Amino acid sequence: MKLANVNDRAVLVLGDQIADVAEVSEGRFGPDPMALFDDWAAFTEFAATVTTGSAPLVEADLDNPVPRPRQVFAIGLNYRSHAEESGMALPEIPATFTKFPASLTGPFADVELAGATVDWEVELVAVVGARADRVAEADGWAHIAGLAVGQDLSERTVQFAAGSQFSLGKSYRGFGPIGPWLVSLDELADPDDLALGCSIDGTTVQDARTSDLIFSVPQLVAELSKVLPLLPGDVIFTGTPAGVGVTSKPPRFLQAGEVLETWIEGIGTIRNHFVAPAG
Ligand code: ZN
Question: Is 39 helix (H, G, I), strand (E, B) or coil?
Fold first, then answer.
């Protein structure tokens, strides 16, 4: 099942068509994309019965499929390759920060460059589908509704200012594109081993597999839920592999006019165009 957001209404994606969830369910499920996560098992059962859409899928209309999570977790240094390029030791617990929810944006949104050192980070995004409190790793996937493509855009100067300001430097307006839709786990042959990458104006800069994650998705559910409950609709940015701009030699950062395309095998591709800051 592919669940998308058009005009802040949940829609199912069926090939090149969409079906409005509230309409096709005759009100059993409402239009709010976030409300579905509170009743995820019943919703997925219903969604499996919908086989035809009623309107064309228009890429430019797609917004963030998880627009208002209560909590956003983001994990640093979670690929061996990225820890190595950063010259950092492998972490013993997930290196965790937040991207404040108002920084999230749609899969094809224009993003304003917040500074001269804005960097890219392709990331697998996992969305919580059932409250997870002290969950064992073996039960981790059962608490995930699905997966999406994300970018953990990062203003590196602010990220490393004042000691360390990960949450602030990664929360400028539009710094968290998610999409193009949420894909349920049954659509993926192996959700623990997906190719992912991104390109700038067609030149690939990151190219890896999620099997290189230090803390896998179910391990993250276990580790985070030891500390606090994960709530339906919460978002987990799972970390980025090697190939970011700040560790390139010489370092390079995103420029106005550039297009960042980001993909994950079995999920899809998002595309963000960078624009100069407004006055
Ligand atoms: Zn990241």
Answer: helix
> Could you tell me if 58 and 88 lie in one domain?
no
Query: For residue 22, what are the CA distances in angstroms to 18, 95, 197, 242?
Result: 12, 39, 34, 41
Predicted pLDDT of residue 277: 86
Instruction: Tell me which residue of 62, 47, 64 sits closest to 16, measured CA to CA.
Output: 62
Peptide bond into 180 cis (omega under 30): yes
What is d(CA 162, CA 159) in angstroms, rounded to the nearest whole number?
9
Distance 95 CA to ligand 1 centre (A): 10
Q: Are residues 148 and 246 in the same domain?
A: yes
Q: What is the pTM of this model?
A: 0.97
Q: Could you give the CA distance from residue 99 to residue 77 in angstroms, rounded to a whole number?
A: 15
Whether the pLDDT of residue 85 is over 90: the answer is no
Q: How far is the CA of 15 from the centre of ligand 1 (A)?
A: 31
At residue 278 the predicted structure's pLDDT band, cuts being 50, 70 and 90, is confident
74 pLDDT more than 90: yes
Give distance in angstroms: CA of 237 to centre of ligand 1.
Answer: 7
- Residue 57 sits in the same domain as residue 76: no
Q: Cα(7) to centroid of ligand 1, in Å? A: 28
The last residue of a domain, from among 11, 33, 63: 63
- Is the Cβ–Cβ distance between 197 and 242 less than 8 Å? no
